[in-house]
From TrEMBL, chain A:
<feature type="active site">
    <location>
        <position position="38"/>
    </location>
</feature>
<dbReference type="InterPro" id="IPR019533">
    <property type="entry name" value="Peptidase_S26"/>
</dbReference>
<feature type="domain" description="Peptidase S26">
    <location>
        <begin position="9"/>
        <end position="100"/>
    </location>
</feature>
<keyword id="KW-0645">Protease</keyword>
<dbReference type="InterPro" id="IPR036286">
    <property type="entry name" value="LexA/Signal_pep-like_sf"/>
</dbReference>
<protein>
    <recommendedName>
        <fullName>Mitochondrial inner membrane protease subunit 2</fullName>
    </recommendedName>
</protein>
<dbReference type="GO" id="GO:0006627">
    <property type="term" value="P:protein processing involved in protein targeting to mitochondrion"/>
</dbReference>
<keyword id="KW-0496">Mitochondrion</keyword>
<dbReference type="InterPro" id="IPR000223">
    <property type="entry name" value="Pept_S26A_signal_pept_1"/>
</dbReference>
Automatic annotation (TrEMBL), chain B:
<feature type="active site">
    <location>
        <position position="79"/>
    </location>
</feature>
<dbReference type="InterPro" id="IPR019533">
    <property type="entry name" value="Peptidase_S26"/>
</dbReference>
<dbReference type="GO" id="GO:0006627">
    <property type="term" value="P:protein processing involved in protein targeting to mitochondrion"/>
</dbReference>
<dbReference type="GO" id="GO:0042720">
    <property type="term" value="C:mitochondrial inner membrane peptidase complex"/>
</dbReference>
<feature type="domain" description="Peptidase S26">
    <location>
        <begin position="10"/>
        <end position="91"/>
    </location>
</feature>
<dbReference type="InterPro" id="IPR036286">
    <property type="entry name" value="LexA/Signal_pep-like_sf"/>
</dbReference>
<dbReference type="InterPro" id="IPR000223">
    <property type="entry name" value="Pept_S26A_signal_pept_1"/>
</dbReference>
<feature type="active site">
    <location>
        <position position="35"/>
    </location>
</feature>
<dbReference type="InterPro" id="IPR052064">
    <property type="entry name" value="Mito_IMP1_subunit"/>
</dbReference>
Protein backbone atom coordinates (compact mmCIF):
# COMPACT_ATOMS: atom_id res chain seq x y z
CA UNK A 1 0.00 0.00 0.00
CA UNK A 2 2.86 2.31 0.77
CA UNK A 3 4.05 1.87 -2.78
CA UNK A 4 0.63 2.75 -4.25
CA UNK A 5 0.26 5.87 -2.16
CA UNK A 6 3.77 7.08 -3.03
CA UNK A 7 3.04 6.46 -6.69
CA UNK A 8 -0.16 8.43 -6.37
CA UNK A 9 1.75 11.28 -4.76
CA UNK A 10 4.28 11.21 -7.57
CA UNK A 11 1.52 11.22 -10.22
CA UNK A 12 -0.19 14.20 -8.61
CA UNK A 13 3.02 16.16 -8.64
CA UNK A 14 3.92 15.30 -12.27
CA UNK A 15 0.57 15.22 -14.11
CA UNK A 16 -0.20 18.96 -13.81
CA UNK A 17 3.06 19.66 -15.68
CA UNK A 18 2.05 17.56 -18.71
CA UNK A 19 -0.01 20.34 -20.38
CA UNK A 20 2.90 22.74 -19.85
CA UNK A 21 5.24 20.37 -21.66
CA UNK A 22 2.77 19.82 -24.48
CA UNK A 23 2.30 23.56 -24.83
CA UNK A 24 6.05 23.98 -25.13
CA UNK A 25 6.33 21.33 -27.86
CA UNK A 26 3.46 22.91 -29.80
CA UNK A 27 4.36 26.57 -29.55
CA UNK A 28 8.03 26.51 -28.65
CA UNK A 29 10.46 23.90 -29.84
CA UNK A 30 10.14 20.21 -30.60
CA UNK A 31 12.23 17.38 -32.03
CA UNK A 32 11.49 15.19 -35.01
CA UNK A 33 12.98 12.92 -37.62
CA UNK A 34 13.07 13.52 -41.35
CA UNK A 35 11.83 10.94 -43.84
CA UNK A 36 12.64 10.86 -47.52
CA UNK A 37 15.24 12.36 -49.76
CA UNK A 38 13.57 15.53 -51.05
CA UNK A 39 15.88 17.81 -49.04
CA UNK A 40 19.19 16.18 -50.04
CA UNK A 41 21.96 17.16 -49.51
CA UNK A 42 20.83 19.47 -46.69
CA UNK A 43 18.92 16.77 -44.78
CA UNK A 44 19.27 12.98 -45.05
CA UNK A 45 22.32 13.16 -47.37
CA UNK A 46 22.58 9.39 -47.11
CA UNK A 47 19.72 7.76 -49.05
CA UNK A 48 19.76 4.81 -46.62
CA UNK A 49 16.22 4.68 -45.20
CA UNK A 50 17.46 3.63 -41.76
CA UNK A 51 19.61 6.70 -41.21
CA UNK A 52 17.29 9.55 -40.45
CA UNK A 53 18.23 13.03 -39.37
CA UNK A 54 16.90 14.39 -36.09
CA UNK A 55 16.09 18.09 -36.35
CA UNK A 56 14.80 20.87 -34.11
CA UNK A 57 11.47 22.47 -35.10
CA UNK A 58 10.92 26.09 -34.13
CA UNK A 59 7.16 26.73 -33.82
CA UNK A 60 7.64 30.03 -32.04
CA UNK A 61 8.91 31.86 -35.15
CA UNK A 62 5.92 30.74 -37.22
CA UNK A 63 3.42 31.64 -34.47
CA UNK A 64 4.68 35.20 -34.82
CA UNK A 65 4.38 34.97 -38.63
CA UNK A 66 8.11 35.27 -39.37
CA UNK A 67 8.64 33.96 -42.88
CA UNK A 68 11.89 34.47 -44.78
CA UNK A 69 13.09 33.39 -48.18
CA UNK A 70 15.55 30.54 -47.77
CA UNK A 71 14.00 29.12 -44.58
CA UNK A 72 13.55 25.38 -44.33
CA UNK A 73 10.02 24.85 -43.00
CA UNK A 74 7.54 22.08 -42.27
CA UNK A 75 4.11 22.48 -43.79
CA UNK A 76 0.92 20.54 -44.24
CA UNK A 77 0.63 19.03 -47.69
CA UNK A 78 -2.03 21.12 -49.47
CA UNK A 79 -3.81 18.06 -50.89
CA UNK A 80 -3.39 15.76 -47.86
CA UNK A 81 -3.90 17.76 -44.65
CA UNK A 82 -2.66 14.91 -42.42
CA UNK A 83 0.70 14.72 -44.15
CA UNK A 84 3.53 17.05 -43.10
CA UNK A 85 6.40 17.77 -45.49
CA UNK A 86 9.72 19.60 -45.22
CA UNK A 87 10.62 22.09 -47.94
CA UNK A 88 12.54 25.32 -48.44
CA UNK A 89 10.76 28.64 -49.05
CA UNK A 90 11.99 29.86 -52.43
CA UNK A 91 9.73 32.86 -52.99
CA UNK A 92 7.12 34.90 -51.12
CA UNK A 93 4.18 36.93 -52.37
CA UNK A 94 4.76 39.13 -55.39
CA UNK A 95 7.89 37.30 -56.55
CA UNK A 96 7.96 35.86 -60.05
CA UNK A 97 9.24 32.29 -60.22
CA UNK A 98 10.51 30.42 -63.23
CA UNK A 99 8.87 27.02 -62.70
CA UNK A 100 10.14 23.52 -63.41
CA UNK A 101 8.73 20.75 -65.51
CA UNK A 102 5.37 19.43 -64.19
CA UNK A 103 3.98 22.93 -63.66
CA UNK A 104 1.75 24.06 -66.55
CA UNK A 105 2.97 27.70 -66.79
CA UNK A 106 6.56 28.80 -67.40
CA UNK A 107 6.37 31.72 -64.96
CA UNK A 108 4.24 32.28 -61.87
CA UNK A 109 3.69 35.33 -59.73
CA UNK A 110 3.21 34.10 -56.16
CA UNK A 111 -0.21 35.37 -54.97
CA UNK A 112 -0.90 37.28 -51.78
CA UNK A 113 -0.26 35.36 -48.57
CA UNK A 114 1.32 32.44 -50.40
CA UNK A 115 4.83 31.10 -50.80
CA UNK A 116 6.66 28.94 -53.31
CA UNK A 117 8.32 25.92 -51.69
CA UNK A 118 10.82 23.52 -53.22
CA UNK A 119 12.93 20.64 -52.02
CA UNK A 120 16.69 20.98 -52.30
CA UNK A 121 16.91 17.81 -54.40
CA UNK A 122 15.17 18.93 -57.57
CA UNK A 123 14.67 15.47 -59.10
CA UNK A 124 13.12 13.67 -56.14
CA UNK A 125 10.89 16.30 -54.64
CA UNK A 126 7.16 16.83 -54.93
CA UNK A 127 6.88 20.53 -54.27
CA UNK A 128 5.28 23.71 -55.58
CA UNK A 129 6.19 22.65 -59.09
CA UNK A 130 3.52 19.96 -58.64
CA UNK A 131 0.92 21.66 -56.47
CA UNK A 132 1.55 25.35 -57.07
CA UNK A 133 1.94 28.21 -54.57
CA UNK A 134 1.11 27.22 -50.98
CA UNK A 135 -0.79 29.43 -48.49
CA UNK A 136 1.46 30.52 -45.62
CA UNK A 137 -1.19 29.35 -43.16
CA UNK A 138 -0.14 25.76 -43.91
CA UNK A 139 3.41 26.39 -42.70
CA UNK A 140 3.76 24.82 -39.24
CA UNK A 141 7.33 25.33 -38.06
CA UNK A 142 10.78 26.40 -39.04
CA UNK A 143 13.58 23.82 -39.18
CA UNK A 144 16.74 25.48 -37.94
CA UNK A 145 19.13 22.93 -36.49
CA UNK A 146 20.26 19.41 -37.29
CA UNK A 147 20.77 17.58 -34.00
CA UNK A 148 21.52 13.95 -34.51
CA UNK A 149 24.23 12.86 -36.89
CA UNK A 150 26.73 14.60 -34.66
CA UNK A 151 29.20 15.29 -37.46
CA UNK A 152 26.58 17.57 -39.07
CA UNK A 153 25.31 19.09 -35.80
CA UNK A 154 24.52 22.76 -36.22
CA UNK A 155 22.55 25.30 -38.20
CA UNK A 156 21.02 24.17 -41.46
CA UNK A 157 23.12 25.56 -44.33
CA UNK A 158 21.71 28.16 -46.71
CA UNK A 159 21.17 27.37 -50.33
CA UNK A 160 22.34 29.76 -53.05
CA UNK A 161 19.31 31.63 -54.35
CA UNK A 162 20.08 31.15 -58.04
CA UNK A 163 18.45 33.25 -60.73
CA UNK A 164 15.08 31.57 -61.16
CA UNK A 165 13.22 34.08 -59.00
CA UNK A 166 12.67 37.77 -59.62
CA UNK A 167 12.06 39.21 -56.16
CA UNK A 168 9.41 41.82 -55.51
CA UNK A 169 10.79 45.17 -54.28
CA UNK A 170 9.31 45.06 -50.77
CA UNK A 171 7.83 42.07 -49.03
CA UNK A 172 4.96 42.58 -46.67
CA UNK A 173 6.26 41.93 -43.18
CA UNK A 174 4.25 39.06 -41.74
CA UNK A 175 4.82 40.03 -38.17
CA UNK A 176 2.00 41.32 -36.05
CA UNK A 177 4.17 41.97 -33.01
CA UNK A 178 6.56 44.28 -34.82
CA UNK A 179 3.68 46.40 -36.07
CA UNK A 180 2.02 46.85 -32.72
CA UNK B 1 8.55 32.72 -1.30
CA UNK B 2 7.65 29.11 -1.99
CA UNK B 3 3.99 30.14 -1.77
CA UNK B 4 4.46 32.63 -4.60
CA UNK B 5 6.22 30.01 -6.65
CA UNK B 6 3.42 27.53 -6.06
CA UNK B 7 0.69 29.92 -7.17
CA UNK B 8 2.69 30.98 -10.24
CA UNK B 9 3.14 27.32 -11.18
CA UNK B 10 -0.60 26.75 -10.74
CA UNK B 11 -1.44 29.68 -13.03
CA UNK B 12 0.98 28.34 -15.65
CA UNK B 13 -0.48 24.84 -15.44
CA UNK B 14 -4.06 26.04 -15.73
CA UNK B 15 -3.21 28.36 -18.65
CA UNK B 16 -1.48 25.57 -20.54
CA UNK B 17 -4.34 23.17 -19.82
CA UNK B 18 -6.86 25.66 -21.18
CA UNK B 19 -4.69 26.21 -24.22
CA UNK B 20 -4.50 22.46 -24.81
CA UNK B 21 -8.29 22.19 -24.61
CA UNK B 22 -8.58 25.09 -27.08
CA UNK B 23 -6.15 23.40 -29.44
CA UNK B 24 -7.75 19.98 -29.51
CA UNK B 25 -11.36 20.21 -28.40
CA UNK B 26 -13.06 23.57 -28.79
CA UNK B 27 -12.40 27.27 -28.64
CA UNK B 28 -14.14 30.54 -29.35
CA UNK B 29 -13.28 33.44 -31.58
CA UNK B 30 -14.57 36.88 -32.45
CA UNK B 31 -15.73 37.14 -36.02
CA UNK B 32 -17.10 40.19 -37.73
CA UNK B 33 -17.68 41.49 -41.23
CA UNK B 34 -20.54 41.47 -43.69
CA UNK B 35 -19.72 38.20 -45.45
CA UNK B 36 -21.91 35.90 -43.29
CA UNK B 37 -24.74 38.37 -42.90
CA UNK B 38 -28.01 36.54 -42.45
CA UNK B 39 -26.35 33.98 -40.16
CA UNK B 40 -23.91 36.15 -38.19
CA UNK B 41 -23.99 39.86 -37.41
CA UNK B 42 -21.88 42.39 -39.23
CA UNK B 43 -20.77 44.12 -36.04
CA UNK B 44 -19.27 41.02 -34.53
CA UNK B 45 -20.27 37.73 -32.96
CA UNK B 46 -18.40 35.45 -30.61
CA UNK B 47 -18.71 31.95 -32.03
CA UNK B 48 -17.55 28.65 -30.61
CA UNK B 49 -15.92 26.09 -32.87
CA UNK B 50 -14.73 22.55 -32.28
CA UNK B 51 -11.88 20.51 -33.76
CA UNK B 52 -13.41 17.07 -33.17
CA UNK B 53 -15.51 16.69 -36.34
CA UNK B 54 -12.46 17.25 -38.50
CA UNK B 55 -10.36 14.78 -36.55
CA UNK B 56 -12.75 11.89 -36.01
CA UNK B 57 -15.28 12.37 -38.77
CA UNK B 58 -15.68 14.45 -41.91
CA UNK B 59 -16.72 18.01 -42.56
CA UNK B 60 -19.77 18.12 -44.79
CA UNK B 61 -21.41 20.48 -47.23
CA UNK B 62 -23.32 23.16 -45.35
CA UNK B 63 -21.09 23.22 -42.26
CA UNK B 64 -19.96 26.61 -41.01
CA UNK B 65 -16.19 26.56 -40.53
CA UNK B 66 -13.43 28.81 -39.22
CA UNK B 67 -10.29 28.77 -41.38
CA UNK B 68 -6.99 30.59 -41.64
CA UNK B 69 -7.28 33.10 -44.45
CA UNK B 70 -5.40 31.90 -47.54
CA UNK B 71 -4.38 35.46 -48.31
CA UNK B 72 -3.15 36.41 -44.83
CA UNK B 73 -1.82 33.82 -42.35
CA UNK B 74 -2.50 36.07 -39.36
CA UNK B 75 -6.25 36.34 -39.99
CA UNK B 76 -9.18 33.96 -39.61
CA UNK B 77 -12.23 33.73 -41.84
CA UNK B 78 -15.62 32.21 -41.12
CA UNK B 79 -17.35 30.66 -44.15
CA UNK B 80 -19.73 27.91 -45.18
CA UNK B 81 -18.56 24.76 -46.96
CA UNK B 82 -20.18 24.61 -50.39
CA UNK B 83 -18.17 21.75 -51.88
CA UNK B 84 -16.16 18.85 -50.46
CA UNK B 85 -13.41 17.03 -52.42
CA UNK B 86 -14.77 15.60 -55.68
CA UNK B 87 -17.82 17.86 -55.86
CA UNK B 88 -18.51 19.87 -58.98
CA UNK B 89 -19.41 23.42 -57.97
CA UNK B 90 -20.41 26.62 -59.78
CA UNK B 91 -17.58 29.12 -59.45
CA UNK B 92 -19.85 32.16 -59.32
CA UNK B 93 -23.61 31.62 -59.12
CA UNK B 94 -24.13 35.39 -59.48
CA UNK B 95 -22.47 35.75 -62.88
CA UNK B 96 -24.49 35.09 -66.05
CA UNK B 97 -21.82 32.81 -67.52
CA UNK B 98 -21.64 29.79 -65.29
CA UNK B 99 -18.33 28.02 -64.97
CA UNK B 100 -17.84 24.82 -63.04
CA UNK B 101 -14.87 23.48 -61.12
CA UNK B 102 -14.20 20.11 -59.48
CA UNK B 103 -12.94 20.55 -55.92
CA UNK B 104 -9.45 18.95 -55.75
CA UNK B 105 -8.63 16.28 -53.14
CA UNK B 106 -8.03 17.63 -49.64
CA UNK B 107 -9.63 20.98 -50.43
CA UNK B 108 -12.96 22.65 -49.66
CA UNK B 109 -14.97 25.23 -51.58
CA UNK B 110 -15.87 27.94 -49.06
CA UNK B 111 -18.36 30.76 -49.51
CA UNK B 112 -19.92 33.43 -47.35
CA UNK B 113 -23.69 33.52 -46.99
CA UNK B 114 -23.78 37.10 -48.27
CA UNK B 115 -22.72 36.46 -51.84
CA UNK B 116 -22.68 40.09 -52.88
CA UNK B 117 -20.17 41.12 -50.21
CA UNK B 118 -17.85 38.24 -49.45
CA UNK B 119 -14.24 37.45 -50.29
CA UNK B 120 -14.24 33.69 -50.53
CA UNK B 121 -13.32 30.79 -52.82
CA UNK B 122 -14.54 32.82 -55.79
CA UNK B 123 -11.53 35.08 -55.17
CA UNK B 124 -8.89 32.67 -53.84
CA UNK B 125 -10.02 29.29 -55.17
CA UNK B 126 -10.47 26.05 -53.22
CA UNK B 127 -9.12 26.19 -49.66
CA UNK B 128 -6.77 23.47 -48.42
CA UNK B 129 -8.10 21.31 -45.58
CA UNK B 130 -5.01 22.15 -43.54
CA UNK B 131 -6.22 25.73 -43.22
CA UNK B 132 -9.63 24.75 -41.82
CA UNK B 133 -9.46 25.00 -38.04
CA UNK B 134 -12.84 23.72 -36.98
CA UNK B 135 -16.60 23.58 -37.32
CA UNK B 136 -18.70 26.34 -35.77
CA UNK B 137 -21.24 24.81 -33.38
CA UNK B 138 -22.68 27.77 -31.52
CA UNK B 139 -22.99 31.48 -31.30
CA UNK B 140 -22.03 32.47 -27.76
CA UNK B 141 -22.81 36.18 -27.87
CA UNK B 142 -25.15 37.97 -28.60
CA UNK B 143 -28.28 35.81 -28.19
CA UNK B 144 -26.64 32.40 -27.74
CA UNK B 145 -27.87 29.58 -29.96
CA UNK B 146 -26.65 26.35 -31.52
CA UNK B 147 -25.57 26.49 -35.15
CA UNK B 148 -26.21 23.32 -37.11
CA UNK B 149 -25.54 22.30 -40.66
CA UNK B 150 -27.55 24.81 -42.69
CA UNK B 151 -28.18 22.59 -45.68
CA UNK B 152 -31.81 22.27 -46.67
CA UNK B 153 -33.06 19.78 -49.18
CA UNK B 154 -35.08 21.19 -52.04
CA UNK B 155 -38.00 18.94 -52.90
CA UNK B 156 -38.64 18.86 -56.61
CA UNK B 157 -42.21 18.39 -57.81
CA UNK B 158 -42.63 16.34 -60.92
Amino acid sequence: MAFVSSFRQWAWSVLPWVPVGLYFTEHGYSLGTVNGRSMQPTLNPDSNQLKKDVVLFNHWAIDRCHYNIGDVVTLRHPDQPEKIVIKRIVALEGDVVQTRSPYPDAHVRVPRGHCWVEGDEMFHSRDSNHYGPVPLGLVKSKVQYVLYPLNRFGKIPDKPRGNRVRYAPGHKVYNRLDHE
Amino acid sequence: MSNYFKSAALVLQVACGVQLFNNYVAEFTWCFGPSMLPTLNMTGDIVGFEHLTQRFSKLDTGDLVVAVSPTDPSKLVCKRIIGVPGDKVVIDPVSPHRQYITVPPGHYWLMGDNLSNSTDSRAYGPVSGGLVLGRVFARLWPSPKWINNGLEEIVEFS
